[in-house]
Amino acid sequence: MIGTVIDGSYRIDRVIGEGGFGVVYECTELELRRTVAIKVLRPGPMSEREIAQFSAEGQNLASLNHPNVVHIYRLGNWEGRPYIAMEFVGGITLRQLMSRERIEVRRLLEVMMQVAAGLAAIHGV
C-alpha cells in the first residue's frame, strides 16, 4: 500500500491506525504538497448502512469549525471504497504520552478538557 496513489491525488506514506470500520493513512496531497490523513472504509463487503454512516461522519465533521476537531477536505471514492481526506495532526496518543512519562494532573486535565470540547462540538451537530 505504501506509495499507492488514492484517487490520483493522495500518495500513501504510512498507516496511522486501523479499526473495525476503516484504515487511516498519512498521505501526501500531491498537488498542494501537504500532509493529510485519509480514512478509507475497510476492505471487504460493505453494507449500505456502513457506507451511509461513513459518509454521514464526513459530512457532519465537515460542517464543524472547531479547534479541537480536524478539518475535512474531501469525501471521495477510491476503487469502490469511500474515503475521507482530512487535516493531519501529528504527535502522539495520550496512551503513548502516559507510557513515556508521568503527567502532572493539571496537564492531564487540560488535555482532557480539549478532548471533551471537541467531542461536545461533534455531538452538537
What this model shows, in words?
With about 120 residues, this protein is of the alpha+beta class. The protein has 2 domains: about 5-90, Phosphorylase Kinase, domain 1 (2-Layer Sandwich); about 90-125. The chain has 3 helices and 6 strands, in the order E-E-E-E-H-E-E-H-H. The chain has helices at about 50-60, 95-100, 105-125; strands spanning about 5, 10-20, 20-30, 35-40, 70-80, 80-85. Strands 1-2-3-4-6-5 form a 6-stranded antiparallel beta sheet, covered by helices on one side. The mean pLDDT is about 90.
Strand order of the largest sheet: 1-2-3-4-6-5
CATH topology of the largest domain: Phosphorylase Kinase, domain 1
Major pleated sheet = 6 strands, antiparallel
Poorly predicted runs of 5 or more residues:
none
Helix content: 25-40%
| Number of helices, counting only DSSP H or I runs of 4 residues or more | 3
Anisotropy-based shape:
globular
How do the helices and strands follow one another from N- to C-terminus? EEEEHEEHH
Structural class: alpha+beta
As a whole number of angstroms, the C-alpha radius of gyration is: 16 Å
How many structural domains are formed by the residues?
2
Please give the CATH architecture of the largest domain.
Answer: 2-Layer Sandwich
Arithmetic mean of pLDDT? 91
